[in-house]
Each structure stands twice: as C-alpha cells, then as structure tokens.
Amino acid sequence: MNPLLKRLLHLRNTIDFPLRSLLSFSTPYSGRTEDKSTLFNSLCSTRKKSAEAREVGMRTRYSLDALYENSINHEYLQNLTTLEFLEQGITNTSAAPKIKLLDIGSKYFCYAPAIHAFFSVRHPGKPVQLTGIEVDAYRRFIDLHTRYDYAQYYIRTIPAARYIAGDFLKHEGEYDFITWFYPFIFDYAHLVWGLPLNLLKPREMLAHAYSLLAPGGTLLIINQYHQEKAVQAELCAQMLIGPTSQEAIQSSFTDSQVVRYSTVIKKAY
Ligand SMILES: C[S@@+](CC[C@H](N)C(=O)[O-])C[C@H]1O[C@@H](n2cnc3c(N)ncnc32)[C@H](O)[C@@H]1O
Questions:
Q1: Quick one: which atom of ligand 1 is closest to the CA of 133?
Q2: Residue nearest to ligand 1 atom 8, measured at CA
Q3: What is the Cα 168 distance to its own chain's centre?
Q4: Domain spans of the chain?
Q5: pTM here?
Q6: Does the beta carbon of 168 lie inside 6 Å of ligand 1?
Q7: For the segment 43-59, what is each residue's pLDDT rounded down to a tens digit?
Q8: What is the pLDDT of residue 256?
C-alpha cells in the first residue's frame, strides 16, 4: 500500500472512528424487504436453477421463512452463504448442555439468523445463545441508522441473542463455537473499512479468540484470498494452535470470483 495513502487513511480514521463511536444515538430500525424473485439473477441459467432449488431446501431445513419475507436480497444472500460456509466448516457438534456461540466483528449482524439456525438444527432441543461483537457498531448508514440499530432488528426474534458494541480484545467469556468471518489481516482492508491502525492486531485477536474457546470448542475463521489464508495459517502455527484444517470453500449462491478459505481450530478437552 502506498505509504502516503496509508498515513492519510490512518489520520482520517483516527479522527472519524472515535467521533462516530461517541455519536451513538440510536433510532430503531424496522427492516425492509425485497422481492426475492431476482435473488439469483447474477447467475447463469444452470447455476440459477440449482441455487433456487438449494435455497428452497435451506429455507425449509433452517426455518428461514420469516427472514425470507423480511430482508433485502443481499442480506438474505449473506445468510445463505453463511449457512453454506458453516455446513462446510463445522462438522462437529458439542456435548455442552447449552450451546454458547460468539461471532467476532459482526458488522451489523444481518447473518445472525443463519448462525443461530445452523447451530439450533445441529443441536436439537438445546438452548443456543448467540453473541455478536463489533468495535465499529455506531457506523451510520445513509438512512442514519447505525449498525447497532440494524443488528437489533436482525436479532429481534432470536432468543438469548445479543450484539455488543465493543472491542473484542476486551471481551471475556467462554464459548463452544466462535465464528470469525473475514478478519482483518492486512492494513489495507482495515483502513478502508475506517479503523485506525492501532486496532489492527491479528495476532492478539487470534490468541484471544483461542483463549475464549471452551475445552472441546471450535473456532471457524473465513478468509478471503490465498494471501490472507496463508498469513492466518502462519499465525496459528506460531501460536501452536493448529489449524486443525484449512480448505477452500465455495458458495453456490453467488458468482463471486473471490476465493474463500475456512480455517478450523479445535481446542482439546
Ligand atoms: C471485514 S469485516 C467483516 C464483517 C462481518 N463479519 C461480515 O462477514 O460481513 C470485519 C469486521 O470486524 C470488525 N472488527 C475489527 N476489529 C475488531 C475488534 N477488535 N473487535 C470487534 N470487531 C472488530 C470491523 O469493524 C469489521 O466490521
């Protein structure tokens, strides 16, 4: 990254980020919906047909009717993709009587329904408690609602779900499963997403995520691009925490050319 651009973005974010964190006033977001008939229009006709069939199957399996009716298309798509990534990345179940889940860097948590549905179906009859945490929770959309407001909307029907506005590095707890979609590994994405460089701590974040896993717990990380996945593996190796597996994963619902990888880390009992 150009050093001058890096300095400028860092300077801007050093001013912007604390300011918007202070301006946290909230106005309840009540959702929007879109016609889902165009959901897979970006796919070629063969892929579109199979995506439509798969979507119907997932909607039934994970009881997504309410989400289908009350979401805009790209958010619904993110839920479908999240479910596919979870199906490919999480193959184990937990013996814990109550399943405690944490999602790191949840943005506005529109994919909370997918995480909750996946683990509820995997653990029938057990209570599933979902927490999302986001350091930039008061970033505002064009409609002036914050990520926090949106997150409250997306978790409104999920029992025992919460969205924490805060720094993951200061969060404590113990979780059976931790999900971490697209962590910042390199400075470019971190800066473009509006965060100051003093918050870019991929090593500390990974160590902390591992420390919050319950014995027998699983951490699933999804990275984009080969370079991110390679650094992620290197960080795990330096900390002697695995990974247990690292694989390329795909979504049948989008035509994204970006290659994604899952890194699965399991903590011993
Ligand atoms: C690339 S985005 C991914 C967002 C989301 N997981 C998704 O899949 O759409 C990374 C997110 O992590 C958040 N983040 C970065 N550092 C964090 C920290 N220390 N604690 C909590 N969230 C953090 C960022 O603000 C950003 O929203």
A1: 21
A2: 181
A3: 13
A4: 3-23+41-266
A5: 0.97
A6: yes
A7: 999 999 999 999 999 99
A8: 84
